[in-house]
Amino acid sequence: MEINRKSPPSVGPTARTGESSSAKAPKAKALTVRDGFDTQGARPSNFVDRPTGRPTPPGASVPASAFTYGSSNVAVKPGATNKVDPSKEKPKLTGEPIIAVIDGGVDFKHTDLDDAMWTNPGEVAGDGIDNDANGIKDDVHGFNVGDGGGDPFKGDGTDHGTHVAGIIAAEDNGKGNTGIAAGKAKVLSVGGLYDGADLLTNFERSVDYLVKMKTEHGVNIRAANASFGNSYRDAASQERWTAAVQKLADADILLVAATANGNGSNMNNVPDMPANIDLPNVITVASMDRNNDKLARFSSHGDKVVDLAAVGEDVLSTVPGNQWEEMSGTSMATPTVAATAARMFAENPDLTAVQVRDLLIKTVEQDTDLKGKVITGGKLDINAAIDAAKATVEPKPQTPAVATR
Ligand SMILES: [Ca+2]
Ligand SMILES: [Ca+2]
Ligand SMILES: [Ca+2]
Ligand SMILES: [Ca+2]
């Protein structure tokens, strides 16, 4: 079927989607490029993920009190080792692996996602009370980093965030699409990424929430999907990005990051955050074309910084209002890897983020088109990665045979 490409971008400037297309004519929810944006990054192909910066809109800053769990209050001081205090009893992590989607918020009422969302067991919905005392009222399915509230499904980029979530976990129900980790993982939505404050500040606050929920509330967060990014040339910002990703590492959370949609640009030696952060819990993803045959024309690459590629072109997934839509971009390739990681954690919950990253890398399928473009020279092999995770499971010790005589 010929897909009619729509020209208006449907995502925010720092999101890593290029274009959306739909045979179902979804309602136009294109984001407006707001005051303060540099639109020079807009290209004819509608890749608009390269703004030079995004100042906080006047009056839109989030009160510091909304982030009482924030970096100023975390137990670990900057520069100190970020290890969790061993004297504190760590909550036991159980249940399905949870993938955090840091993005525009997810439509958690979508019929294809409503059973795929993480639900905060410590929170009572809609009572205006922060029942679990984590600093956020009514954060039932995640929270909104843009306004500090408990409703992630607000603000810019909700079509993008909802699409990303569906690639991971849309239900296997005969409708729309089926997420790669359908029924095996839950999605926690950190919405509002493009609201309130700048991308870096919002990312730091997102990380603080996730780390707190995992280390203090026992929420089984295993990976965070980062279908966003930007170039940060100043050392201070680079240090902040790296410190935030280190906090994820210390909480054993994998960060799956999208490379840029730079139409073939080489990202080696580009201070692109968080994609190019060199930490062992970061895996960076480029996009293959729809046939999984070549690097997609819109994708950037870099054989020093991009680990692997995965299909990110014409991907059908959920968008708000019980709709489905095809979108393209490294934003769509990235959750494919995050979902595969979720499947691996489901196979063996004892695997660490670093181990899962290593297995994802070791099991890529080599592709001649990726030689010299990504570190591994390969593309995601979902089944091989899951099988490799399965193979790490220790066989259960045989119970001694009971004498039957
Ligand atoms: Ca459902
Ligand atoms: Ca709460
Ligand atoms: Ca509540
Ligand atoms: Ca479905």
From TrEMBL:
<feature type="region of interest" description="Disordered">
    <location>
        <begin position="1"/>
        <end position="66"/>
    </location>
</feature>
<feature type="active site" description="Charge relay system">
    <location>
        <position position="160"/>
    </location>
</feature>
<dbReference type="InterPro" id="IPR036852">
    <property type="entry name" value="Peptidase_S8/S53_dom_sf"/>
</dbReference>
<feature type="active site" description="Charge relay system">
    <location>
        <position position="103"/>
    </location>
</feature>
<keyword id="KW-0645">Protease</keyword>
<feature type="domain" description="Peptidase S8/S53">
    <location>
        <begin position="97"/>
        <end position="365"/>
    </location>
</feature>
<dbReference type="InterPro" id="IPR023828">
    <property type="entry name" value="Peptidase_S8_Ser-AS"/>
</dbReference>
<keyword id="KW-0378">Hydrolase</keyword>
<dbReference type="GO" id="GO:0004252">
    <property type="term" value="F:serine-type endopeptidase activity"/>
</dbReference>
<dbReference type="InterPro" id="IPR051048">
    <property type="entry name" value="Peptidase_S8/S53_subtilisin"/>
</dbReference>
<dbReference type="InterPro" id="IPR000209">
    <property type="entry name" value="Peptidase_S8/S53_dom"/>
</dbReference>
<feature type="active site" description="Charge relay system">
    <location>
        <position position="331"/>
    </location>
</feature>
<feature type="compositionally biased region" description="Low complexity">
    <location>
        <begin position="20"/>
        <end position="30"/>
    </location>
</feature>
<dbReference type="Pfam" id="PF00082">
    <property type="entry name" value="Peptidase_S8"/>
</dbReference>
<protein>
    <submittedName>
        <fullName>Peptidase S8</fullName>
    </submittedName>
</protein>
<comment type="similarity">
    <text>Belongs to the peptidase S8 family.</text>
</comment>
<keyword id="KW-0720">Serine protease</keyword>
<dbReference type="InterPro" id="IPR022398">
    <property type="entry name" value="Peptidase_S8_His-AS"/>
</dbReference>
<dbReference type="GO" id="GO:0006508">
    <property type="term" value="P:proteolysis"/>
</dbReference>
<dbReference type="InterPro" id="IPR015500">
    <property type="entry name" value="Peptidase_S8_subtilisin-rel"/>
</dbReference>
